[in-house]
Every structure is written in C-alpha cells, then in structure tokens.
Amino acid sequence: MPRKDLTNYTPKLSYKKKIGMVMFYLHRISGIILGLFFILHILSKGGYIEWFSNITANKIFKWFLILVISFHTLNGLRIIAMEFFYGAEKEIFPKQAVGVIILTIIILIIGFFAI
Questions:
Q1: Is the separation of the CB atoms in 12 and 91 below 8 Å?
Q2: Which residues contact 96 (CB under 8 A, 6 or more apart)?
Q3: Which residues touch 115 (CB under 8 Å, ≥6 apart)?
Q4: DSSP 86
Q5: Which of 1, 20, 24, 90 stands the most exposed, by the fewest C-beta atoms within 10 Å?
C-alpha cells in the first residue's frame, strides 16, 4: 500500500500539466539529437565518416541545429530557474514555457538570417 503523503501532490508542484509534459519530452528528444550530432560530428572531423560533412553543409540542417540547441539551452535554464528559484510555486510555469518557445523562435529567426 503506497504512502498517503506520496500520492497527494499539491497542484502547484506537479508536472501533470499538458505544457509541462510537452516541454519534458521535447527537452529529452532535443538532448538525444544533440548527443547524436556531437558523436557524428566528432567522427566526421576525425575522417571516419565523410557523408556527415555533406549533411552539415546544408542550410536546412544548420537551421534545425540552431533550433535544437537554442530550445535545449533555454529550456534547461528554465528548469534550473524553477528548481532553484521556486518558479513552480509562483504559478508562472506556463509563462516560462511560452517564454522559452518565443525566445527559441527569435533565436531561430536571427540564426536563419545569419546563415
């Protein structure tokens, strides 16, 4: 039988919100993509796989990489702010998530013109 204090979560501290789960999964997926990119990048610079160098020269790939890096970084900073500065208790969780998405789009637009 589970403990009663572990089954009753306060709504302020739960991750049961829809936007929270979407951000959770996007953060995990972007982390996996970045990990695979770094492994393939190291292997291509070492000369072991040459086909990856052709893919990284593509502008669409660079645009996608800027999207993944900026989202993962900003969402990670949002998570740190929530953990250390009590962001979840102040009920600003949806505002933080929307802020991350807006900043990611701004960085994506700036990166698109810089490429």
A1: yes
A2: 78, 81, 82, 87
A3: 59, 62, 63, 66
A4: T
A5: 1
Picking from 98, 39, 37, the residue whose alpha carbon sits closest to that of residue 66 is 37
Going from N- to C-terminal start, the domains of the chain cover 16-114
Q: What is the 3-state secondary structure (H, E, C) of 18-59?
A: HHHHHHHHHHHHHHHHHHHHHHHHHHHHCCCCCHHHHHHCCH
How many residues comprise the chain? 115
Tell me which residue of 77, 53, 66 sits closest to 104, measured CA to CA: 66
Q: What is the pLDDT along the chain (115 residues), one digit of tens a residue?
A: 555 555 555 555 555 557 778 888 999 999 999 999 999 999 988 888 888 888 888 888 988 998 999 999 988 888 887 777 766 666 677 777 788 888 888 888 887 777 6
* DSSP letter assigned to residue 17: S
Domain 16-114 fold is: 3 helical TM bundles of succinate and fumarate reductases (1.20.1300)
Q: Are 52 and 41 in contact (CB under 8 A)?
A: yes
